[in-house]
Amino acid sequence: MVRRLAVCGGSPSGLQAVESLLADSESDINVSLFLQLWNPVEVQNKWGRGRKICIDYVPHMVGKVPEAVQQSFGEESFRQMTCDEFSIYPDAMTFCRRWALRLAQRYPGKLRVFAHKDAFSVRDGDVQLLQPCKIPYRMHFQGSSRTWQLDFRNPAKDCVDSDLSEEFDMVAVNYDFSFRMTHVKAVRELLDSGMPATEEIIKNFALGLHCAKTIVCAVRVAAPSKGMPHVLHGEGGGLLFAERYPTDPLVHGWQRGANPGDQFWLIHSTCEFAKQRFLGDTSGSSRTRRKRWDKAETGKMLVNEFCSLLAGACSGIIPSVHQLGNTYHWDLPLPLTHPEFEAGAAPLLLDSSCNVAWVGDFVGVAARLESGGPLFGLGAALAAGERCASALAAALGANAGPSSSLPLWQYHDAAAAGQAEAQEGNSVGGELGMLLATTTREQAAYRGTCNWKVAEAAAEGSDFKTRCAETGILWLEHLPIKRARELADASLARAAGGGNGTQNGAGERHRAATKGLSSRLTRRGSPKPTTTTTEPTTRTATATTTATTTATTTGTTMGTTRDVVRVAVLGRTLSSLFFVRELRRLLEGEDGVGAAVEVSLFPAMFDPARNIYKPHPICEYASSNFWASAGQSSRKAAGVAALEEAFAQRYLNSWLERGLVEEVQPLAGATDQAGPKTYRSTGGGMFALLASLEKELMEDCQPGRFSVMLHDKLQLTQMQYDHDAQMWSLYSEFGGSGQGADWYAAHQVPNIASRFDAVVMGFDLDPRGARKASFKQLLESALPTSCPVIRCLGSTPSSSAMTCVVELCPPERADVHVCGGTHYGLEASDSSKPGTILELAEQLQPAQHSQGRGLRLSPGATNEVWNLTANVKWSKSIRSSFSSGRWDKKKVERNLVEAFQSEVAPSYRNSQYKSLVPCFHWQGAWPLTAIEKSSDAACVYDASARLGWASDAFVFLNADPSVAAVRQLRTCNLLHAFKSASDLAGIVAKGAQSGQGVGAVASRLPKRSEWKLRCELAAHRTGKPEAPLRDLFADTGRSDPQDGIDHTWPTAARLAADGALVIEQADSLKKYRRRDDRNKSRQRRPAVQRRCLPQTASCDPGARNRAGFGRLAAGWAFGLAATRQAIWLAADSGPRLQPQLRPNLPDLPGLGAAAGCLARRPGYHLHSPHCFGAGAARPAAGASRPARVQRQMAR
Fold first, then answer.
1. Are 381 and 313 in contact (CB under 8 A)?
2. Rounded to an integer, what distance in angstroms lies between the CA atom of residue 1107 and that of residue 939?
3. Using the 8-state DSSP alphabet, how is residue 904 labeled?
4. Secondary structure in 3-state letters for 740-796
5. Ramachandran assignment for 1046, one of left (phi > 0), alpha (psi -120 to 50 degrees), beta (any other)
6. How many CA atoms lie within 13 Å of 479's alpha carbon, on the beta-carbon side?
7. Cα-Cα end-to-end distance for the chain
């Protein structure tokens, strides 16, 4: 059986590991070597070419080179500078490029090498041996088959090409500290995308790494004299050494602008000098600097010292020296710690349960300490790679491989070894190794953090203080700076008290901790041990919730008892907050039964179309007034009267007493006098009421039984369900928090240890505290697990209408002013009246709309602000599709104002108006359907995945027969959201009280037959079923099929139409992700990852082929709508074609191989409802396209 290994990265240790692995002719292993990795920060970088001095650092002087290495690579690859100093010829970058080509030539049947061909030169070898460049972009572990899937970035198309995806039995990332051929940020990105399967590798690295520090600057020496040395060593000042680089601007991009004969040098400072300049003083070992460090002055000091040394080496002749670029503080040049492997353990970081490994020069330090060789450098990297090859071969063997190798780290006694070798005239594996001989751990404990958010969360979420006390580690690079200082202070305190925690080697305590380590590690195929983790909260309101909440689990599968049930509630809406409040109430009377419940609130979710931190008055819509009761006919239904009474007792009466809401008295001349009592929120409107309700939840907790945590600074972009652990993980791609957050990489939130038993989403149409686009992209990121929930939501279409917000100048006579409040359109029987346009006119007062809607309303202003909304029928005549091209917004706005002046306020006929919000084609204006029976649970809950949805769109409680239909259908009724949330809370509480988890209940997945049009419910209960009523309030206002399905969400529409369909991946909002990349908080594309599809009878490959056909090829799509329609025709007819006929199908005009892919690849299934691929990747930083191209792509 052929085993497939993917090696990601091309440093010397990785190249040596590949060569040693393939040298065994009996091994049945195929290796794919991906030299280039995706780095979003340095998108222009190419493997084998250096652009920056430290990020792309490779040494020129490499110390001693073993004779076996010289014979293997040829003596022409090295130059002996002194008796114990060798240099790589012509340079290290070229050396690695030629090595990669040599491997491709030696093992053509076993090895594929992927790299940018234009990064190589003819002198390197036969470039045709390289495969077309495929850049690993993300990786996903498929637990059912125990394989990894790599998705690649296609550089020709500047996107992630799903057709290039490959599966591997094992993935090994490669990174060397002494040879920076691969960017560390690229390795981080790849490991982050593999979460949670890569969690143990990341955590081990984060809980052990402590590096020396140095300050580096590059200089150009013009017209140097003959006899210039290759290395200059400092003489007790801040300069540690300076090394001369070969002059080749094509290889080292930072040398551009060189003149013939110029020399380029890198100056490195001591760690003590770096700490002094960076902090300002060295009085505190772990204190932050008081002010920003002076880069220019620091660089000048190093250059002056370099000139003095240069003058001594050149007999007093000082050539012209120019500094290049800024002075750079290098955080991670070489590690002071290394993993201490037990005897017999695999000499690399290996998680055998997930088949992922990390190969690098740092994993060979323990063996080099025993043998007495240099710890870092070329020889050390090659030795480490050779040792890793045997471990990789064993892990890929047919039988169970070695145990996971994730040992504790400890300091290497590099100072003594370095001093001994320095006395013999040899640096520790190259000049950079001198840092290890001159740096103490106390000197290097000052700089953090290294901005690897996932690693920081992993380290902070563990008991890092206890672990570091065992190993004697003083400082961790991947800790938030505050936590790192606490660790350093505790370590120094132990040292002052006589402890051995900071002694070299870490003493007997470390030996005892590492003894028998393999018995505690995970073996291949066994479940990972569950650990007790501590999760920091972003906000706590009482003393009982100020302490960090600890979540201890005693089971890993559904059906076992848990001490804590953790529920994530998404969205700041009435449905979500009512759900939390009702869940707490249901659990209050069940002391000692079931499990404690922790609720985490996540109000902020990424919206690809609009920035969530810039409220839009329509996207964040809220009515001025609301009802809180049902009509007489609705009260006759089972439970409705009790529901109304419960809402009044638990919420409404309290709000009235505290002045949060007030009753609205009908005004003379208004059209909203009849019907139930009307209320309005004070002090800012409905969004102020939401904030007040959220604050109450934070303050009213039951310690040990029910707690609420608010994470309002995290912006969610993805969610994933782990079928093995049956837990949910939430992810964000924003490195900071709040409005100023910048894009970083997909990382688990609130921290790496946070997983949830259930996820509940609350979406309301009025008030809209969350956007449906945010929920769409979250649910689609969880496909195929979220298919049942999305299928139910496909039966909740909404109508579209034209709306605008204008500022009107009222007449001078006060007695002719229009009465405030809400004015509704004409009755259905009068809808045929010519000129009937307006359906809703609502005056926006500061007391009801000053918060959360993005409106600047000044109390006491003379002008009036009105929100005017047209009826659906007229709106459809203006624009029936959201892709129908341009339309005259100003003309539509003018028509709405004129309709208001003629139909509602004739006295305003001559009033001037000003547009505050441009005319908006409101896609989801009003809900069209609801669950027919009031006695049925008005929610969606998938018990197998513990995923729920509550919404006011599920409920319609008819008002009194005297109330006009337009008021019944357009007025906000808080009982709708309350009923949906209460029903969902009852289901979740039942599972928590059972003691068997929230999944131990029946699912609630409403069928299509349970939904009915709201206008039919209103007509049936009022006894007036009129055809004009259906014409006005049953149309979507779009050219979509009027079949009761939400066609604005293609994924939901396809699932609702076919109950057997399973979709693995989709991105309905893809067109918004292709916009200009400069507005990062709005337009950065979250990586919708490919999810694992469990192999069941209902979703086998054959069923997927029958349900949906073809993955549509990505490419430039400039064809007409007819071409796009032809693609869909091919997709629809593809499954019915005989397999033997598919290869003979002609290509469609305009698309070529893209259309042929549909028919010739029957094993593919549809990953995206769009015609042009499964989603776009993040554009390269600074990349731009012509405006015409951007418009065509957006369409």
1. no
2. 27
3. I
4. HCCEEEEEEECCCCCCECEEEEECCCCCCCCCHHHHHHHHHHCCCCCHHHHHHHCCC
5. beta
6. 31
7. 47
- As a whole number of angstroms, the distance between CA 909 and CA 974 comes to 36
Q: Which residues of 814-968 form beta strands (DSSP E)?
A: 822-824, 838-843, 864-870, 913-927, 929-931, 940-942, 947-950
- Could you give the 3-state DSSP secondary structure of residue 383? helix
Q: Tell me how long the chain is.
A: 1195
- What whole-number distance in Å separates Cα of residue 467 and Cα of residue 477? 15
Residue 1062 Cα distances to 212, 418, 424, 509, 782, angstroms: 52, 61, 69, 54, 12
The CA-CA-CA angle for residues 781, 784, 786, to 5°, reads 70
Determine whether 314 is exposed, middle or buried from the number of CB atoms within 10 Å of its CB (0-12, 13-18, 19+). middle
Write a three-state SS string for 508-572: HHHHHHHCCHHHHCCCCCCCCCCCCEEECCCCCCCHHHHCCEEECCCCCCCCCCCCEEEEEEECC
Q: Which structure tokens are listed for 579?
A: 């759900």
User: In this structure, what token pair is assigned to residue 1164?
Assistant: 């593919």
Long-range contacts of 846-849 (CB under 8 A, 24+ apart): 847/680, 847/682, 847/683, 847/684, 847/685, 848/622, 848/624, 848/680, 848/681, 848/682, 848/684, 848/685, 848/686, 849/617, 849/622, 849/624, 849/685
Residue 1179 CA to residue 405 CA, distance in Å, equals 37
Q: In angstroms, rounded to a whole number, what is the distance separating the alpha carbons of residues 503 and 152?
A: 46
Instruction: For residue 570, list its beta bridge partners.
Output: 602, 761
* pLDDT, block means (10 residues), the chain with 1195 residues: 92 93 82 91 84 84 75 76 73 89 91 90 86 88 88 75 86 94 90 91 93 93 77 90 85 78 90 90 46 87 91 74 90 92 88 93 89 84 91 80 86 55 46 86 83 87 87 89 87 67 36 29 30 33 31 33 79 96 83 72 90 88 90 74 92 93 71 72 90 89 81 90 90 70 68 86 94 94 95 95 92 69 64 69 88 83 90 91 83 92 83 89 92 92 95 89 83 94 93 69 92 81 59 87 93 94 90 53 38 32 33 30 36 35 36 36 33 34 43 46
The strand pair at 758-762 and 135-142 is best described as: unpaired
Nearest to 352 by CA among 391, 386, 387: 391
Token pair recorded at residue 309:
């040394």
Q: Is the pTM of this model over 0.85?
A: no
- Rounded CA-CA distance 412/435 in Å is 13
To the nearest 10°, the Cα dihedral for 670, 671, 677, 678?
-70
Closest to 841 measured CA to CA, from 868, 863, 818? 868
Q: Are 580 and 599 in contact (CB under 8 A)?
A: yes
DSSP state, residue 962: T
